[in-house]
Amino acid sequence: MAIDIKKEQIGQAKIEQRVVYESGNEMAAYAAHQINYHIMGYFPISPSTEVAQFLDLMKSNGQHDIVLIPADGEHGSAGVCYGASTAGGRVFNATSANGYLYMIEQMPVQSGTRFPMVMNLVCRSVSGPLDIHGDHSDLYYALNTGWPILMCRDPQAVYDMNIMALKLAEDSEVRLPVLVASDGYFTSHQKRKVQTFAKREDVHDFVGAQPPAGYPHTLDRNNPITVGPYMNEPDYINNCYQQSVAMYNAEHVYDRIRKEYADLTGRDYPILDLYRMEDAEVAVFLMNSASELIKDVVDQLRSQGIKAGSIAPNMIRPFPQQAIAEALKNVKAVTVGDRADSYGGHGGNMVNEVKAALFTHGNRDTLVISRIYGLGGKDFYAEDGHNLFQFAIDAMNKGKVDVPFDYYGHTPGDAAKAPKRVLKPMNFEDLKTGLITVKKDEETGKLSVRIPPLRSLTKKPKRIAPGHGACPGCGIFSGLELFFKGIEGDIVALFHTGCAMVVTTGYPYSSHKATYIHNLFQNGAATLSGVVEMFWERKRRGELDHLNLPDDFTFVMITGDGGMDIGMGPAIGAALRNHKMIILEYDNEGYMNTGAQLSYSTPIGHRTSTSNVGSVRAGKVFHHKDTAQIMAATHIPYVFTGSEAFPQDLVKKAAKAQYYAQNEGLVYGKILIACPLNWLSEDEMGTDIVNAAVDSCFFPLYEVERGITSITYNPEEKNKKVPLVDWLKTMGKTKHMTKPEHVDALQSFEQEVERRWNMIKAKHENPYL
């Protein structure tokens, strides 16, 4: 909601402004839409995902012209942005945590070739173990990438810094990509009152014309350039020197820009935000959201006669070394709080840089205390601020620092309170029932499977215990447990990050009764490959004999929630190496664990939080990915599709999958599962909906056994085929497609589904296809 306000209410502003009440993520998107960037390459990751979501919603209603490109992963999104920046346009992105680390290889590439852009880093814990809350561990990885870094203590700063960042990036003395950092969830999701430019043209006037005069790009045919050439010494060291000069130029250029911005808006962001430091004897140095709360603590201490002050940088690259040394020259003791550790460095990055600043500028007297605080999103309260000041006060009174470095706010371990096993390990004999038989035809090589009535399999123990935290009606666990009914004996399971992983492993509890491993989307297949090969090699060497392990371990990787977008490359690599394992994809048609963003498995026209329905665009604009066919093209022994709506079919395929994974190589399976929350469907309708998906031929059931395709259920032959539109009507995310104004998207979807179904039928009829 926007509220028009009078000029005098906004200080000394020279331009018309208005007030909105929004979060940091919303303000990053709002600034981007006012700038009207050319390109945004992005990939969902909490807590930065909302930036793309808000821009997509505005895009669907025609509020900006930014081309939003959903990449296959953060590394891909960084490549999209780099390529777009070389082509001379304005480029934007947002990411967090492990996603930033996945793209980090591209960060020095872009800064080293001097192509500007703006990226929001919504700071979050770098894991594992997995934690999605805010600290600065991802930010500290950014310090050596060659990007100037601006800091945002609240949503107002997010908006303002995003506008100033582009002007800084494109300045002729800088010409570097710029990072805008805010605190995940503390700033990204908390709503505050924010003053904004009322008119887009005022934003454009401040930022200036684009591209900067004389700036080279790859689309100028009259001035072809070579980007990123191979470079030897001494050219490389000279290039690095020039980049270093540009980085240090960013400090005085930013200082000039922030003064211009202050004159225009009445809001000023000096390089250091100093609070009551004019005569301070003790101080605390904090960054971003915590730096605002500490000001209240300063006031409380001042009321007690203690000369306290606080320091917070608005820029940390280049590091404002001289300004910090000047601010601390008369301070007797300062506590530096780092929201991330530089493991083994006797303090976080900021404390060591503060110490270097003091040493460089001749200050040997100010005592420095280092404390690591707030990791994993641990809240920071006024009481904590008082404790940080107390460390400085004690040091000032003693004339020395008793404990130079330590963590603050942690709980010492107590061996007596170590987590105890709640679930007993599964009994191997209980898991190997002998009720399922798999036989190989020696002539054809094909497998025949016999399964008993499904009710007789109910006595097999569940591999995932009750008590997970999935949404009502979630199809993941009914689908997985049905698949596991066809697996005999012990398994080792690896779960990609995703809903299935998150809701079953809330420390200190776990729903997994078999051995479980987690790794991130992009590397699960490679990780399980390592486990598989280590098992067989250690068994060959006799190192596992004392454990009396069976030879028929089954290794299973569970993926979903878009894991076969960002994880496709490693999965194909594992398939080409043909490791003895199963990859099972639960397809819920989106990145559901991060808020229902589109994935490449999302069908055309379907609504997600990054394929919104609006006045100028309705749903996803390109067709869905066929992972089963992609994996079949790697010529692995067995590929299948399945559905809980056809339980006998899925159990038989699970038994086949186990045989091939134990005897021949990699198996890939894909099961369609319902996500009522994000499909906008009734909780109890999941099985009916995925049944309709099969009967409409959207999700055909088939297997590819040693390269030969066989349809295992044909709704046409059963006289059960239903129109695709009947399936779409069962979900709120697709009901718009049945309206006349969206007939083009519906027809495109129908034609593609029919084309793919006919392709499968042709392969079924011809073993050479």
What does this structure look like?
- The chain is of the alpha/beta class.
- It is 36% helix and 17% strand.
- It has 25 helices and 26 strands.
- Helix 1 runs parallel beside helix 7 (155-170).
- The longest helix is centred in the N-terminal third of the chain and has 31 residues, at 235-265.
- The radius of gyration is 29 Å and the shape is globular.
- Residues 280-384 form the Pyruvate:ferredoxin oxidoreductase core domain.
Tally of domains:
3
Provide the gyration radius in Å. 29 Å
Q: Give the overall form.
A: globular
Please describe the biggest sheet, giving its number of strands, its sense, and whether it closes into a barrel.
8 strands, mixed
What does the oligomeric state look like here?
Answer: single chain
Would you count the extended β strands for me?
Answer: 26
Distance between the termini: 57 Å
Residue share in β-strands? 15-25%
Q: Identify low-pLDDT runs.
A: 1-10
Q: Count of helical segments?
A: 25
Strand order in space, largest sheet: 20-19-21-22-24-23-25-26
Report the average pLDDT across residues: 93
Question: Roughly what percent helix?
Answer: 25-40%
Compact summary:
Keywords: 4Fe-4S, Electron transport, Iron, Iron-sulfur, Metal-binding, Oxidoreductase, Pyruvate, Transport. The protein has 769 residues and is α/β, with parallel strands linked by helices.
Defining key terms:
single chain, 769 residues, alpha/beta, Rossmann fold, eight-stranded mixed β-sheet, seven-stranded mixed β-sheet, 25 helices, 26 strands
